[in-house]
Amino acid sequence: MSDPRDKGCLCQGCGRRYRVDLRLSDELWKRIQYPDWPNLLCGICIMERIEDFREFDYYDLDHGSAKDAASGLL
Ligand SMILES: [Zn+2]
User: CA-to-CA distance for 67 and 37, rounded, in angstroms?
Assistant: First the structure.
């Protein structure tokens, strides 16, 4: 039987496995991604990189999940 903790993606920033993927604008992604290689980042690494901007900002995460969008709830 598969362990649900084995599912998800490996973060290429910290190496942790994560199961919640965040969709970012292209503009924000360009600011936080590693410059030399395509990468997958967990929510913790994404937020740490945003915190590194050293500015107060606001991001709206309240658009539901991709599963909600696929089922027509959004
Ligand atoms: Zn990470």
Answer: 28
CA of 16 to the centre of ligand 1 (A): 6
CA of 28 to the centre of ligand 1 (A): 16
8-63 residue pLDDT tens: 999 999 999 999 989 898 999 999 988 887 789 999 999 999 999 988 888 888 77
d(CA 70, CA 30): 27
CA distances from 62 to 1, 58, 65 (A): 34, 12, 9
- Please report, for residues 1, 6, 16, the alpha-carbon distance to residue 72 in angstroms, rounded to integers and kept in the order given: 32, 29, 32
Token pair of 47 as six digits: 């937020």
Beta-bridge partners for 17: 10
